[in-house]
Design goal:
193 residues, mainly alpha, two-stranded antiparallel ribbon
Amino acid sequence: MNTFDPHGPAGFDPKTAESPADGVDDVDAAMRAARVFLAVIAQSVAEVEHRVNSPQLRVLVLIATHGPQNLGAVAADLGVHPSNATRTCDRLVAAGLLDRTDNPADRRYLLLAVSAQGKELVDTVMEHRRTAIMGVMNRMPPGLRATLGPALDAFAEAAGEVTDDERFALVLDDGPLQDRSEAGNAVIVPPTR
């Protein structure tokens, strides 16, 4: 699973990096962008908080993104005790958002998969995020917008995040950003300082 390591992927040596990130302006710009991303995430969570809480949503997104998981993998990815993961997953199963089945590879373990209702909920959250981010990106100068995706992919890869997962990707064409579902723009209210 992807566990964030602030020092980068295993084996990374900041002393051998081509150009160290010592530019305070670049770090401050990344921090400002992070506030916008956090605002987008908070708004998308607020859309579904009547159905799930944040830890439950995190489990659903994890399983929707990485495929069926066992309880041990869920606990490890969330960095919680297995009993906490069990309680969270039990609630999601009871709500019809996760399906629990025998693991065909090892019947001692159960597999948790997102149900049709769970997929719909995750899709709603991701659609909100995609639409909100597209709205911001469409207000950027086109030349800068074209460089943003590769720069963010490199940033995510440096943090150890998998960047080849197309399930939640935006599709770029010659015009404004277009989502696969052709959604419109959203208004984002960044958090106040």
